[in-house]
Amino acid sequence: MGPVSDTPPPGGRHPDPPPPPPPPGLTGSQPPGYTAYDNAPTVGKLSRVGGLSTALVVLVGVVGVSAVIAAVLSGGARDSARDFREGRITENEFLESYLAVGMLGLVQLVATLAAFVLTVIVMYRLAANHRALGRRGTWSPGWAIGGWFLPPLVIYVIPFLMFRELWKASDPDAPHGTDQWKRGPVSALVPLWWVLYGLVPLGLIVMQGAGSVGGGGFTSSTDALAETVEEQFALTLVGSLLTLAAAVVFIAMIRGLVARHRRLTGES
What φ, ψ does residue 173 adopt, rounded to 5°? Predict the structure, then answer.
């Protein structure tokens, strides 16, 4: 092969410039924070849900454990209430015994509120990711917030229906660009959670409300408090066990849902 001439080609044309380097992610090194979604089509940015779901599981676990401890302590509180009403212990002794139950209830309330906030965020991100992937259903991301506050409030129909759709839309085996995911099955954990969290507690609320009205449970009197603690011991025990069952089912449901979704998006 002869020597290469430095003379430009005729007509003022120059050799084509070399092609640009491949974008990050196609070379072996990826920039910090880069997440590849291998199983998803080319879309905009997808939100991660793994870390939030882990924190959510921990908080719901705290609620469940608190319910178990409350079930144990409620027996002692009932005995103290009976002793106080029959004059065997003083008012301060009864209140000191009941204080542990009250503090535990406060811990459970804070954990429940924090878990609720994370649940809303996780549901919102799941729905937003589905929309980015072209899987548009009935419930937009905004329903992850408003659905908890719209009637019927206590039984949470909209969150239940949204969880059903999120489960279907997270199907990693449904082909992209089709509506096949809408015909997929839903885990039995979803309706079971709704029954335990939305339907059964409604009956307990009605029963506790009736007992409080009849026994003066809404007054600040120590005597009325002791009467309520003693008379509603059975409902308190059932409510604690129900809370534990609902927490266990919710943890299993959210772990299964997020696992499906992460397979769909390729989130590592």
Answer: -95, -10
